[in-house]
Amino acid sequence: MSTKADSGRSYHLQCTGVAKETAEAHSAPKDITLFGSCFCPFVQRVWVAFEYLGIDYKVYEVDPYKKPADLLEVSPKGLVPGLRLENYNPPRAVNESTVILEFLEDVAASKTKQSLLPPITEPYARALIRLQADHVDRTLIPAFYRYVQAQDEEKQIQGARDFVEAINGLIKLFQRAEKESESNFGLWREGGTLSLADVMAGPWLFRSTNVLVHYRGFAVPEGPQFRTYLDRLLNYPAFKRTCSTEDLYIDSYERYAHNRPNTSQVANAINAGTALP
Number of C-alpha atoms within 13 angstroms, CB side, residue 177? Predict the structure, then answer.
């Protein structure tokens, strides 16, 4: 059970470490502006996709809890990430991380030829990766938040079990794809390339190695294949370029770990037992 006192620390407003260097390298105006927050995993999945797909962008860090007017213009709920498409007059917008990922796939198909999915001529291989991605959103992410927000010992123990079960479910889907598809998409395979599922899961698996370890004493699942996968993912250049220093995540997730009132719309949804926003 977590025994760390709530120090009242707030979330960070700017990236640190390697992520700060990446943000500074993308501070000039481009056709696409990425509205994001340094601590947000939904933003990170989109940021990784930008980096991997080779699409030009500008980083615009905002405080999503203040909901500035320009953020609301691109994301009506005031949630990050959001994209402002500057090459329209007036500019247009895309929001919701999964929709943004699909949008970036479409942009890359005509501009950079990079992809997070196998070719369209391999529909079954694409479907297997989409099943992995679906599991991440339906099961892994909610389990992460239930675990980190759990306050009593019994719920924390159950939270750890549920999160590990969600990881094991993802592993089974990876193993299924390895058995049923010849595609080299996905870092689960040696020599594989970054996949949509890797991008979707990566930010929460990364936070399991710092936030969950710090606040819940989480033991990352053993097993050489999973540990090798995690190492490949967290050290993959496009992913690593979006990672701040550990203290940013520890500080920014303290409010989740103590389940402070109105921590976020995501936290409120978990507490209410409703779907994530």
Answer: 29
- The pairing of strands 58-61 and 32-36 is parallel
Residue 36's CATH number: 3.40.30.10
Same domain, yes or no, for 255 and 214? yes
CB-based contact 233:205 (threshold 8 Å) = yes
CATH number at residue 213: 1.20.1050.10
Separation of first and last alpha carbons in the chain:
28
Report residue 166 as tokens: 């969600």
Strand, coil or helix: 236: coil
**Per-residue pLDDT, 5:** 86
Q: What is the DSSP string of 111-137?
A: HT---SS--TT-HHHHHHHHHHHHHII
pLDDT of residue 79: 95
- Rounded to 5°, the CA angle 170-176-180 comes to 150
Instruction: Show the domain range for 87.
Output: 17-111
Is 11 inside any structural domain? no
Summarize pLDDT for 171-195 with one digit per residue, the tens.
Answer: 999 999 999 999 999 999 999 999 9
pLDDT tens digits, 212-247: 999 999 999 988 999 999 999 999 999 999 999 999
Of 61, 82, 111, which one is at a domain's C-terminal end? 111
Q: What's the rounded Cα separation, in Å, for the pair 231 and 233?
A: 5
